[in-house]
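Side project, low priority. Logging it here so it doesn't get lost.
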Amino acid sequence: MKSIRMKPNQGHWQVREEDLEFFAREIESFLPGRVFDAHCHLYRASDLRGPLPALVASGPAVVD
């Protein structure tokens, strides 16, 4: 299985054993050996209902 490198204490995300199993079963066969991912998540905290997820609560109210 390919390794997944994450920086220690990288935000609020954690790779679990079931994630590694999913990666191996569903996507490993067609991904290249190295992948670069650059993307963003746009949101307005005021549009979200209920308690804000920790990652959103720790960021700005609007990301556009």
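Brief comment: The two ends are 37 Å apart (CA to CA).
Revisit when time allows.
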